[in-house]
Amino acid sequence: MQIDKVYEPQRFEPHWAQWWIDSGVFRASTRGGGRVFSLVIPPPNVTGSLHIGHMLEHTEIDVTIRWHRMRGENTLWLPGTDHAGIATQMVVERKLAEQGIDRKDLGREEFEKRVWEWKAEYGDTIKRQMIRLGASCDWSRERFTLDPGLSHAVREVFVRLYEKGLIYRGEYMVNWCPRCKTALSDLEVAHSEQPGHLWHIRYPVVGADRYLVVATTRPETMLGDTAVAVNPMDKRYLALHGKTVMLPLMEREIPIILDELADPDFATGVVKVTPAHDPNDFEAGKRHNLPRVQVIDGDAKMTPEAGRYAGLDRYEARRRVVADLEAQGLMEKIEDYTLNIGKCDRCKSAVEPLISTQWFVKTKPLAEKAIAVVESGRVEFIPANWTKTYYEWMYNIRDWCISRQLWWGHRIPAWHCRECREIIVAREAPESCSRCGSSRLVQDPDVLDTWFSSGLWPFSTLGWPDSTEDLKTFYPTSLLITGFDILFFWVARMIMAGMEFMGDVPFRQVYIHGLVRDAERQKMSKTRGNTIDPLVVTEKYGTDAVRMALLQGAAPGTDIVLTEERMQSSRAFANKIWNAARFLFLNMERSGVDPWLPESLEQFQPEPCADSLEVPVEDRWIFSRLNSCAEQANRAIEQYRYHEAAQVLWHFFWHEFCDWYVELKKLRFREGSGLDAHWRNTLAAFETALRLLHPAMPFVTEELWQRLAAGNATRPVSIALAQYPGYRRHATDYAAEREVGVLQEVVTLARTLRTEMKLDPKQQLEGTLYSRTMLELGRKHEDAIQRLAGVRLEFSAEAAPKNAAMRSTTAFDLVLHVPKAQADAQRKRLEKEREQQEKNITNSRRQLGDETFLGKAPANVVETIRGKLAEYEAQLGKVNETLDGLAG
Questions:
Q1: In 503-637, at which residue ranges do the beta strands (DSSP E only) sit?
Q2: pTM of the full predicted structure?
Q3: What is the spatial distance between Cα 681 and Cα 607, in angstroms, rounded to a whole number?
């Protein structure tokens, strides 16, 4: 069987990545019964490309999906992308700007056409990357949030919610992004602290010779003040109740109102009230029927209402306002102050709170059912601590602003009558106004928030509102794997939508994975320059190696530290698998063995040899260890403890299969033997190990498995469809594990003694095994011990003499007989080491006996010296013991 000498995954990974798709092995079925496992992908933005966070998420999903598929379940991983309204519009607008084109000049229809053209050319980047990295999705069911079917579902949901009174249109304070020119939901605003100032401004009291000092972080908004507020319980301002102040710079008289908006403990206890530019002031304005004066517009420029500051950028207006207040003697003081600035999560521009007419969803009625299903356990969060976070948001949920002032997205299905201003919400465009009969109707210009459509993802992708076979088969989905950052954006909204429109949860479990961090545990970001491109590192190390590196750190509730060293180590692991396979394949040729797999991949039992009629102990042992590995791997994957699964598989393949089993088994292979019991047992063990490893490392396992299954029509076409090994109680062989365990102890101790005594690893040595209980077992395996440890043993039931080259266990003593020349060299080395340790001890004792030193030295320094002294004395004892043995 030909196999490349060097492990070069780039040679075969692209082939299998495409073959899996072409062969249809990942396609789910709506026919027949049996267990079903389904999962929808958290749809990446169509504008994006994979980052290492995607690869972590997709690796965890893929491990779970492949595991369920190999267990014989009808398994669906449904892929797709999100149209990403704001992000996509920004990308296309930027490209048009490079050509000197403004979207407004193109018009809406032509602009949308350009976006679709861009999507056709660039929108499949993530799909291509996912296929290359082996994501086992059913690509025949790929969806896009602006597909006709999904658009139909969006309209249906909007109309139903509107008819139920859960969608309404009104004028409210919203987060406005002046760069993206759209309203944002609270969740789309990222808050961060940055240094700023608190300006204390004097407002002259009308009819009195005094000022009220107001503290503000945004002096430019004072131009829109329509009141100042004091707390009704604040005794300092009782005399001013019912009076007015003169608004500085605008010479507009505004009232002093009594409202708990004013906190007596903050600054002077007096606050300015600007109902058009602050959400809290907006509510106070409603309570006191205050006018709303908008002085900042949607471009973050000052409006005509700002007087002589009209047309200025908001920050330039701030500078002018501050300067003018200082010139008029109305600035009391300016102090440094930490600001909590809200920025657009997409473009990072500082948002403006503005009053705007928008569409909203009443979320509290929807949230009640979504809370109940988590409380009852119908939806389980893993790790469980995310349940508390979910509740905190859901119990305090606010109405959701769902309209966006964009052209790319799902157009709101509402039409405005130009005659009577009636609004008609409908599934299809109406021909006339339902109120006045006019045909002068115009569709609402806004589109829906991207999260509105992706909130329907688990059922809209399966064909809802039609009663499709996919919907009947795969909904509710079994699991969602996602990041914590979209717990509210997406996960909570899917639960609300699922309960409202399907009457059932969208998924049974939600596994929240951590972040991928760099070697210093820093969050990865482009600004830090510490991001990792998954396609770059997979090209360098191989996809399987990067997957294994990610999985090893993927403990629930923790972030993943990904380092070059971990990826190098994982590549070494993949290389170890390759070399083990190459050794087996080369020896198969030497023995005249063709590719072979047992008739039953799951029920195979190790066979006895023809000459002894016994099953070799190493075969009994490896199948017992395979059984233990299968038990642990199944349990770990089922519980989403991916790091444990990776560690179990790594330990078994490297340390048990490669380091011990292959080494023991190669003593049995004979030239021209043909397919004897030794080979059948070996190949069955190797194939079982490949199946265990496949969900974590699909490429190398497929490549090697196909060589074993070559030309065998009774086998599945892919290892991805072979049965995943399960735990079988009868397959555990404790006697074989004890026997091989003793053999391993003897060999390991012999190797350790060689290393400690710096003996030539290739030199054959003599030795004696002293034991009253292990002599028969030792004699049984003396050939293996000699081959693996390079020691020819004698056996004795007597007590072992004192000897420098000796190691002991509770069951036996192992003594190596060191040749005289090497013993003399060892003695000289140890005598030098003894001399150095004695010097170290003398120096340490001298320091600890110096009262002056002890009185001045820090306590931790003294403790360090004492610790080192104890270490030196212990090392000296070992050296003396070894020298005494050499003397004997």
A1: 507-513, 516-517, 560-561
A2: 0.84
A3: 7
